[in-house]
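FAQ: What does a ligand-bound record look like?

Like this one, built around iron/sulfur cluster:
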Amino acid sequence: MGFSMLGPVFKQMFKKPWTNKFPAKYQPSSTTKYLEAVGVGKAKINPPIPTPPNFRGKIKYDKDKCIGCNLCIKVCPCGAIESKPEEKKIKIYLARCCFCSQCNDVCPVKCLSMGDEFLLAGTDPYSKELIVE
Amino acid sequence: MSSEATTKTTYHIPIGPIHPALKEPVHFEFEISGERIIDVDVKLGHVHRAVEWASRKRNPVQILYLAERICGICSYCHPIAFSLAVEAAADIEVPERAEYLRVIQGELERITSHILWAGVAAHEIGFDTVLFLTWEIREKALDLTEYLTGNRVTKGITMIGGVRRDITKDMIPRIQKDLKFFKDNFQKLAHIFLDDKTFKMRSQNCGILTKEDALKLCAVGPTTRASGVKKDVRVDTSYFAYGDLDIDYITPDKLTGKINGDVYDRIITRLLEVKQSIELIEQCIDKMPAGDIVAEPKIPKLLAQLKKVNGEGVGRHEAPRGEVIHYVKLTGEDAPYTWKVRAPTYNNILPWIPMLKGEQIADIPIVAASTDPCMSCTNRVAIVNNGKHYELNKEELHRLSVEKTRRLMR
Ligand code: SF4
Ligand code: SF4
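The answer part, i.e. the structure of the complex:
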């Protein structure tokens, strides 16, 4: 029959929007100023939708447990992990990581795990936030 | 352009290499007389990302994640076809439960992909309300993907010899709830796509691919099935658990009783396949046996095993767009000696030629989109006529398409 979308369109007008307005309800006039205000606690961030269980976000590394076997380096598809032979530890460059969690699976002592942090964009790939060691 | 349209001479429109309706950068050259397409020429090979070359420095487990990045929509098909090839080369037996889990992931990807396509097809003819309706459903499918695999797009679920994540008992209610949502909404979608006047006007008797042409040009997937060719890797070779499931070729005559091979038939085929995928997932959940999900859970052991292999294997999988083929040769090194990928869109490009001949310029977007190539972002069409130069960009082409819909509605 004729125009089948008319019904759904009218219904849609009375529904709550699906979009979660993240990080702010309305576009701030200056994003940098808004984020500064958030930093000092003057403004609040509209929270993102929570990540699901088993989400693969920023890697967590339990340094004490690591035995320096370098197996994770062998399976990492991105070459994101560097060995520190003197210490027998590793260093992960998150800017290269593709969040596949293959290193988690292979680690014999389970000292790596995937966290749920995902806001990792930055301009400096060697910044402190983007290196896990 | 009106003065051009009245002249008798034909003129040429090059489209691409970068264009929104094309999966890979492809170059088209249309010969146009007025609004009619007289002839089409296609040139391939504009994008070479050296994915296969990059594999020479990686071991098979690393290649899984490289393969995942060949395509964002088929981020399951490529690694799974690669694992099938490696498993064939190394004689690895996949546990039965993993076979069922692989079907579930594959069918969920098909649902997501076909619904995405349905939205894009609606957009191409200027019916954007349907685009938003379909993508609302797709959002649910992505949420379910995220729930089952951890992330929305790059699933990271494939492992050579099985899968990486199990579906536990407590996850089943959520899956069933979402499947019910898909089913309810499938009815709505089918009603809109199959009964709406706008869709019928633009898609019936448009972009016809005859059965002979489909066979001759080796079209694959829904594109060929819509022309009545019974070709589907899932039925033909019964890999994974498909042999135990109730599955048949989807051709448009199942719904309408006849096969025209036009855009409308391709819409029917894809919609029916969404329904089929929902049913397949339900069957899998019912029939799935308990057991291991991967043949060799210890990755270093698996790698050592693969390093001993000397041989070659072919993996075939029915991706949402058709048959994807991976070929691997292992020669006892860390990295494979060679790896070759044949994605389904390669086969579905040549059928564009018979589809487009005789159609109008405004039909290019919907006809090209009807084979479901992936969309890239920008495009520019330059019309060169007698040394005069016009540019037809994506917006312009889209506007022409929308105008045609309006014209037909009057
Ligand atoms: S998650 Fe994957 S890409 Fe990232 S460090 Fe681990 S193995 Fe490498
Ligand atoms: S696999 Fe685990 S124990 Fe071995 S080096 Fe990597 S993090 Fe350390």
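Follow-up question: can I read anything off the structure? Yes, for example: Chain B has two domains: 2-46+379-409, 51-371.
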